[in-house]
Fold these 2 entries.
Entry 1:
Amino acid sequence: MMQQDEALQLAVAFLARSQRDDEPPLAVDPERVRESGRLLIVPYNSVQYLASRNDRHMLLDCWPILVDLDRGDVRFGTLDERHLWRKPTA
């Protein structure tokens, strides 16, 4: 079983590997990280938005990163899983 801080490190590394050259710099949003079931839900957005929280800089299509706390699998969430971060369970 993985601890949240270890899972968060995996999510940060995953986001860095997934970053495309044509995207603005991205970072995880540590204030909004939470657990739902045995998944760590790790939202991210542009560095500029996270620094200002100005909606003008928000990226609207950021599906959170999901880390399975039992297996350590890391991936982006899918549309079918939207309920996990809209109405999380403990």
Note: The first helix runs from residue 4 to 18.
Entry 2:
Amino acid sequence: MSGGHPFQGNWVVRLYERVRERGYDSLTAFAEARPTVPLHLLAKELGKDDVAGVQVLRGLLAEAERRKQVTRFVRDVLARLWTQSVPDGWPAVMDDASRGEIAMALGTWTAYTPETHKERVRQARAALWASPPPAGWRPLGSDDELLRTLLPDEEA
């Protein structure tokens, strides 16, 4: 199916067919090969009109839950949102516009975070505001050193 609504038909099957067509055995592997590509662009790569970013997000979360790597997923989502919202990295000068870009990225990050990790994300956000990273900082993936410090892996 192509050219349809993203939620028409069995979108999970469609999503994984597209991932396999591109030579990957999981959505996570597909996404990890593109560590800073925003979710909506990953979706567009998998299907111009019939895959949505939220479907990629849900698929990545489901795989992370199965692998007990939800914290890594949470870090990955911030790296992708940051590229989209704050592409030049942490600003050298904090003005209203840059504060808004950061607030949008961090707020969306919280919204996309599973309930089990929301408090940890709130603490990480507060730490970023209280002790900002150097100008130009932008996470280049889920293994970013600062993100791993703010959100270390604690999966069971």
Note: Residues 70-150 form one domain.
